[in-house]
């Protein structure tokens, strides 16, 4: 299996705030309309007084906006201050910065330290990244069972890459028993979100009858959908090979199924 990718920084992940937080809200309104200079001016004194939301906001401004020159060290400073107060998205972003060595020295153990509390708070990106770290043994001992645990938490919240990875792990019996039906379930959820790898794997499951009744029409349908992105040569090649075993009428029916599936937003195909 190819290496799992670490999910990148969240560039805007604020939540609703109480009406009394007028000063912070002023900065947030400025941030949301793209007036980062005003947000910076309003949030800086609040952040210096220990407001975790303002600290997180400053981290966002310093990591990538047009208000100031990008400053990874300043972003890491403010994210850390917010993270130490339990701000989940700040913990996650700080973990990403340690994973990438952006604004701080690369340190996978430090990344793990910050992903962990964010994941416990339900942050899907942190949950996914912990799964990837345990899968690869990156900063922690390799442990596929724990990887499955974190991928599952993220997948159940709709994280498409986590859903796909769970499908792969059920297919290969990594951290779980081989279970074609479970693999099919997770591939299906990822495929509905447009994951072409999951769509391609569904095609293989349909053509071999693993986890689902054998059906060349649905195999062709999924490969056709995956190939339509223009970024999945494997699906296109598999479709072409399968067509050699199909009649013209069968191909036409499979193409109709693909059109109908796309029209339904890939749901219930």
Automatic annotation (TrEMBL):
Annotated protein name in UniProt: Tetratricopeptide repeat protein
Domain of life: Bacteria
Family annotation (SUPFAM superfamilies): HCP-like
InterPro entries in alphabetical order: Sel1-like, Sel1_AlgK, TPR-like_helical_dom_sf
Keywords: Signal
Secretion signal, residue range per the UniProt entry: 1-21
Organism expressing this protein natively: Kiloniella laminariae
Source species taxonomy: Bacteria, Pseudomonadati, Pseudomonadota, Alphaproteobacteria, Rhodospirillales
């Amino acid at each position: 299996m190819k290496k799992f990718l670490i999910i990148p920084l969240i560039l805007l992940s604020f939540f609703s705030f109480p009406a009394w937080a007028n000063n912070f809200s002023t900065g947030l309104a400025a941030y949301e309309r793209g007036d980062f200079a005003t947000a910076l001016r309003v949030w800086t004194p609040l952040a210096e007084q220990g407001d975790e939301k303002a600290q997180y906001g400053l981290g966002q401004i310093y990591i990538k906006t047009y208000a100031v020159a990008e400053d990874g060290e300043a972003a890491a400073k403010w994210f850390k201050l917010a993270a130490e107060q339990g701000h989940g998205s700040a913990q996650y972003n700080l973990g990403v910065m340690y994973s990438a060595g952006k604004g701080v020295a690369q340190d996978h153990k430090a990344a793990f330290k910050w992903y962990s509390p964010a994941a416990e708070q339900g942050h899907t990106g942190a949950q996914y990244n912990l799964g990837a770290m345990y899968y690869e043994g990156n900063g922690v001992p390799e442990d596929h069972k724990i990887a499955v645990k974190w991928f599952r938490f993220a997948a159940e919240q709709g994280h498409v890459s986590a859903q796909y990875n769970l499908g792969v792990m059920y297919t290969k019996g990594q951290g779980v028993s081989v279970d074609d039906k479970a693999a099919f379930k997770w591939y299906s959820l990822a495929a509905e979100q447009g994951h072409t790898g999951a769509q391609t794997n569904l095609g293989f499951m349909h053509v071999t009858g693993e986890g689902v009744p054998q059906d060349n029409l649905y195999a062709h349908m999924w490969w056709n959908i995956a190939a339509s992105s223009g970024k999945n040569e494997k699906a296109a090649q598999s479709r072409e090979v399968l067509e050699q075993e199909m009649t013209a009428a069968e191909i036409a029916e499979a193409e109709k199924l693909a059109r109908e599936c796309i029209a339904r937003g890939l749901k219930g195909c």
